[in-house]
Specification:
The strands form eight sheets. A five-stranded parallel sheet has the order 8-13-16-1-17. A three-stranded antiparallel sheet has the order 3-2-7, with helices on one face. A three-stranded antiparallel sheet has the order 4-5-6. Helix 3 (108-132) crosses helix 6 (197-254) and helix 4 (134-164) packs antiparallel against helix 6. It has 590 residues and is of the alpha+beta class. It is 48% helix and 15% strand.
């Protein structure tokens, strides 16, 4: 049977001696997550299991410390995990539109970038000297002279043959011409036309006969010119290889354990040898109204190394919290730069996203923001299903971008994703998205309350100690901690429970610290906590005060004596977001 509740039982007080301290300054800081044993157990399971699809959805209401708790928990676990590899993008000399991704141990990406820059810088220094040497000039002159002798001999033979037939060879911009000779003098076109038809016909027959020899000789002359170019190219390649060969050999020896890097170094060497002229001559910037000295460096960009993921400073696995999960922030972007009104790009402008940085570790995402950003959710699911992350323009998926652009090679993906959202969103995704249940098989549910045990009250004190130290606030006296515990029960609406909405608890501590600072108090006392709670209530209780005033003035009439058929007095609870109060109501039946 219901019994009348005494005033003493309306609120359960907390004895300050249960805190076992005079102030929170003497309490050990909090370790781990308070009052979330179920969520911690689920988190630990989801992080330890290696099978595919066991990513985590952290469900809980805002203010329960989900984001901070998960981040701190992951950082503790990540310390014991191995540091993942570096990832770099390098030029694909066979197809520059498809840059290649190379994998290196942590810290080696910067080393490769620095070593490659040093190699190119040294090549730009030694190659001009090699081609300016007297030895090279002598070899070049010898090569050209030997071929020129063949050319002159061929031309002389052809000229003698033409003279025997009464012609002389004349070189013109359009090639070699056969000019008839009469009485030891070449004939002009007019002079040739004054000749008798019989003589002209005889010259034409001889010219036609010599024409075949001339065409054959011209083919031989073109072959000799090609031979000169081929011999010079071969000699230039040998000289350049001699100048930089030892540099390339040292690089290959340093990275001999990485087959992809050795292959890339070989291709880079071949490209330098094929384009050795750009190392010999100082590149000239195109004529423009404004000086652009950086244009001279453009030809050498293709030898750079773009380190997109650098884990040299990591200690353990990465924990990346992406609070703005746009498509570009998650999957990276390909930047562009304007050159004389035209947007250009290359592999050096590839930038990594959160998935790249979290690869080999953990990625934390807010669910609401993830679903609000176009392509982010679908892209994340595709990356987790395919276990690889690709950098592409978001507009390409809609068909908006049709111009030719870069298609960087994909990077293998191994990451644990923790998506943080409210419970309702979890159920909506579970019911409406068939892939969600396959990719997020672990649910870590954050409770809003925990039992009001002595152990949990001690953890409340430890949380307050940690919070005050982190935000540089005054520490609380034991009596103030007791008031915070009572406030936690009020938030939980249960005398046997404590609220885990630590964001609301933290706000009261901040306000109490403000009032303590006004009184120049060394510690936050119970009076400061009480005032903070009262002031917080006062700021939000305007409507409640108006209703009280209307009752007192008789605008709201409430019968408190006697009886009425089909009528009783009731109490409705009105919630105004951060404040709730009871409002008397009449309940009638007809």
């Amino acid at each position: 049977m219901p019994s009348e509740l005494s005033a003493e039982k309306l609120r359960r007080e907390c004895d300050p001696t249960m805190m076992r301290c005079e102030t929170t300054e003497g309490v050990l800081p909090l370790e781990g997550i308070v009052g979330q044993e179920r969520a911690v157990r689920a988190l630990r399971f989801g992080l330890d299991i290696k099978e595919r699809g066991f990513n985590i959805y952290v469900a809980g209401h805002p203010g329960t410390g989900r984001m901070t708790a998960v981040k701190d928990f992951l950082e503790q676990i990540a310390k014991a995990k191995p540091v993942p590899s570096d990832w770099c993008y390098v030029n694909n000399f066979r197809n520059p539109y498809e840059p290649r991704a190379v994998k290196l141990p942590p810290g080696k990406g910067k080393d490769l970038q620095r070593d490659m820059a040093n190699l190119v810088s040294e090549a730009r220094r030694v190659l001009p000297k090699a081609f300016e040497s007297e030895d090279y000039a002598a070899k070049r002159e010898s090569t050209i002279s030997s071929v020129e002798e063949e050319r002159h001999e061929l031309f002389a033979q052809l000229n003698r043959r033409a003279q025997e037939e009464g012609f002389v060879l004349q070189s013109t911009p359009v090639g070699l011409l056969l000019i008839p000779v009469m009485d030891g003098k070449p004939l002009s076109d007019r002079g040739f036309m004054t000749l008798s038809p019989q003589i002209r016909e005889r010259f034409e027959r001889k010219r036609e006969k010599l024409g075949a020899d001339l065409r054959s000789a011209m083919r031989q002359l073109r072959g000799l010119e090609g031979k000169i170019h081929e011999e010079l190219t071969k000699m230039n390649r040998e000289v350049a290889l001699y100048a930089i060969g030892h540099l390339v050999a040292e690089m290959k020896e340093k990275y001999r354990e990485f087959a992809d890097i050795v292959t890339y170094i070989d291709e880079m060497q071949d490209d330098i040898l094929e384009n050795v002229t750009q190392f010999i001559k100082e590149p000239e910037a195109p004529p423009t109204p404004f000086p652009v000295p950086w244009m001279k460096e453009l030809p050498f960009r293709r030898y750079e190394v773009n380190v997109v993921v650098d884990n040299s400073d990591l200690r353990g696995a990465p924990v990346v919290v992406e609070l703005n999960p746009t498509y570009q922030n998650l999957f990276g972007r390909i930047e562009k730069e304007a050159q004389f009104g035209v947007l250009t790009t290359d592999f050096t402008m590839i930038r990594a996203g959160s998935l790249h940085r979290a690869n080999g570790g953990y990625l934390v995402l807010p669910a609401e923001e993830l679903l609000q950003n176009m392509f982010s959710w679908e892209g994340l699911k595709r990356a987790l299903i395919n276990e690889q992350v690709a950098i592409e323009e978001a507009g390409e998926r809609l068909g908006f971008i049709t111009t030719k652009g870069l298609r960087p090679s994909v990077i293998p993906l191994s990451v644990k994703v923790a998506v943080i959202g409210n419970p309702l969103l979890y159920h909506l995704l579970y019911l409406s998205d068939m892939e969600f249940k396959e990719l997020f098989k672990v649910k870590a549910d954050f409770d809003t309350t925990m039992p009001r045990t002595e152990e949990n009250m001690q953890k409340y004190a430890a949380f307050i100690c940690t919070f005050c130290g982190k935000e540089n606030l005054r520490h609380l006296e034991a009596s103030a901690v007791a008031k915070i515990v009572e406030y936690g029960s009020r938030l939980a609406d249960d005398q046997e429970k404590l609220s885990t909405r630590f964001a609301d608890v933290a706000d009261i501590i901040r306000e109490a610290n403000f009032y303590a600072s006004q009184e120049n108090s060394d510690y936050i006392a119970a009076s400061h906590v009480r005032r903070a709670i009262e002031e917080k209530t006062y700021r939000s209780s305007l409507i409640q005060e108006k209703i009280k005033e209307m009752i007192q003035r008789g605008l709201f009439l409430i019968d408190t004596e006697g009886e009425a058929v089909g009528q009783v007095n009731g109490l409705s609870v009105m919630s105004l977001g951060d404040f709730a109060f009871g409002n008397p109501s009449r309940v009638t039946a007809s």
